[in-house]
Design a protein that fits this description.
196 residues; alpha/beta; Rossmann fold; 6 helices; 35% helix
Length: 196
């Protein structure tokens, strides 16, 4: 039977085609978001090793400090799952740079120096510029607590003779920061051996 010329032709509905298309677009947007924003940043923060008891303003490491940092590069490589550091920052003093040197040598990195005025906005810069990277920061007893607090939201304290602490801040995105405290090198004089 032939269709009447006055009767409108029935068009197929677009809804069955739109549902899979919307699903594919949403999945693609989610994958893009995960690739762009969902990255874990790891920041390793440590104090310079023991400095020489020298009357000069910018002392080098003492023999005890040199002994402490001897295997520091290998130690940092061993505690990282990927065994890789992307950026290395250090205070601009000789004792901080000498502590950072074994890490620079281990990973083939330049040491990016931080002047005293750089520490205040440093954590914001780390979060903004180094998302998804692994960063090592060598600082001082006066700067490390602030850096760790701003990154992890946890207050830490360093005693005068505490040269063996390493703070590892894991910043998943999304998720909450995690803080781990490790120890390296010989036990500092006057401090107790850490529980292992």
């Amino acid at each position: 039977m032939a269709e009447s010329p006055n009767r409108p032709r029935r068009r197929p509905h677009a809804a069955p085609l739109l549902v899979p298309l919307i699903f594919v677009l949403a999945a693609g947007a989610g994958i893009f978001w995960l690739g762009t924003y969902a990255r874990t940043t790891v920041v390793i923060v440590l104090r310079h090793a023991e400095a020489a008891q020298d009357p000069q303003d910018d002392p080098e490491l003492s023999p005890a400090g040199e002994a402490r940092v001897q295997g520091l590069g290998e130690y940092v490589a061993s505690v990282l799952a990927g065994g890789k550091v992307d950026y290395l920052y250090s205070g601009d003093t000789r004792r901080a740079q000498e502590t950072a040197a074994p890490i620079a040598n281990q990973f083939g990195l330049p040491i990016n120096l931080l002047a005293p005025s750089d520490w205040d906005g440093f954590t914001s810069r780390l979060k903004r510029e180094h998302r998804g990277k692994t960063i090592v920061v060598v600082g001082y007893a006066t700067t490390i607590p602030g850096v760790v607090s701003r990154l992890a939201g946890t207050n830490v304290a360093l005693k005068d003779g505490d040269y063996d602490s390493i703070f590892v801040v894991v910043l998943p995105s999304p998720g909450s920061a995690k803080l781990f405290r490790l120890h390296y090198g010989p036990v500092a004089a006057g401090s107790k051996a850490p529980a292992r």
